[in-house]
C-alpha cells in the first residue's frame, strides 16, 4: 500500500518578500514570491511599509501557490511559517495567517527558524542538484547574517563562526551606496565586477581571530578611498566603476574563503554548502567551484531560487519537522532574533 504523501503549505515573511510554497514530501510543487519595489526609493527596507505590503500580498500569494501546485486546501497536511529572525511586523503577518489557516483546516502548525531553512534548502529534491551528507559545513551569507555552521544532522547545528558587526550582504549594499548605485546594490556590484580587474585597487582584509568575520572596517576603508579619489578626480567612480566593483568583490570573497579554509582545517570536514541571498553572487559561486577542484572539497550550491528568501526552504524544514511530529500550538510567538 502506497504511503499517503505529505503536503506542506509554507509561508515566508521575514523581511520584504511575501512568499508561499507547496511541497509534496521533499519536492517543490510551487514557490511563489511577491517582491516589494516600494523600498527602492528609500535605499533600504522600511519595516512599516514592508508589513503593510505583506498584508496586501499574503492572500493572493498563497492562492497562486495552491493553484499552481494543483493542491486543494483540504489536502494540506500542515502549515509551516517563519518564526524568526526578521522584522517583527513582517513576521507577525505570516505567523497570524499561518495560525488561522492551520486552525481552520485542523492541521498541525510548524514554526521554522529562517536561518535553519537557508541551510536545509539543500535537501529539496531537485534534478541536477546533489544533497550534502552529514556532517557538512554550511556558510550562510545574507543581508543580515554571515555564519559558518557545523551541521551534524537536520536539527543539530552549531555556529562555529559569525560576523562581529556587519553581515556580508550589508557590506555589498553599503559599498554600492558609497558608489552611488541604487538599492539593492549587491547584485549590481556583482554585475559590474564581471567586467573589471579584481586587483586594480587592493583593499586590506580585517584581522579577526578564529572563524569570526568583520566587515565594518572594510566598509569604512572603501568610503575613505572613494572620498579621497573623488576629491582628486570628480569622475573617478564613473571612469573606474567596473574595476572598483571587481576589487570590492574580490576582497569580500577572499575574506569568506580564508575563513571557510580555516574551518575545513579545524574540523576536517570537506563538504561545504552555501545558502542565503549572497550565495546568488556569481563570484562566490565560481570561487567555491574552483576550490572544489583545488582543495578536494565537495561544494553544494542551491538552485538560484532557493538562495534568496523563499518559502520552499521553509517548507523543507516543515516537512522534516512533520516527520518528527514537532508541532506548535497557537501560543508560539514570532521572534525578531532567534538562535540557530
Automatic annotation (TrEMBL):
SUPFAM superfamilies for the chain: Actin-like ATPase domain
UniProt record, GO biological process: tRNA threonylcarbamoyladenosine modification
Subcellular location: Cytoplasm
Cofactor binding notes: Binds 1 Fe(2+) ion per subunit.
Keywords: Acyltransferase, Cytoplasm, Iron, Metal-binding, Transferase, tRNA processing
Residues that coordinate or bind Fe cation: 114, 118, 309
Entry's Gene Ontology molecular function annotations: iron ion binding; tRNA N(6)-L-threonylcarbamoyladenine synthase activity
Entry binding sites for substrate: 140-144, 173, 186, 190, 281
Keyword check for Transmembrane helix: no
A GO-annotated cellular component: cytoplasm
Catalytic activity: L-threonylcarbamoyladenylate + adenosine(37) in tRNA = N(6)-L-threonylcarbamoyladenosine(37) in tRNA + AMP + H(+)
Annotated ranges, domain Gcp-like: 27-315
Co-factor(s): Fe(2+)
A Pfam family matched in the record: TsaD
Enzyme Commission (EC) number: 2.3.1.234
InterPro entries: ATPase_NBD (IPR043129), Gcp-like_dom (IPR000905), KAE1/TsaD (IPR017861), Peptidase_M22_CS (IPR017860), TsaD (IPR022450)
Main location: cytoplasm
NCBIfam families reported for this sequence: gcp_kae1, T6A_TsaD_YgjD
Function: Required for the formation of a threonylcarbamoyl group on adenosine at position 37 (t(6)A37) in tRNAs that read codons beginning with adenine. Is involved in the transfer of the threonylcarbamoyl moiety of threonylcarbamoyl-AMP (TC-AMP) to the N6 group of A37, together with TsaE and TsaB. TsaD likely plays a direct catalytic role in this reaction.
Protein family: Belongs to the KAE1 / TsaD family.
UniProt name for this protein: tRNA N6-adenosine threonylcarbamoyltransferase
Organism expressing this protein natively: Flavobacterium beibuense
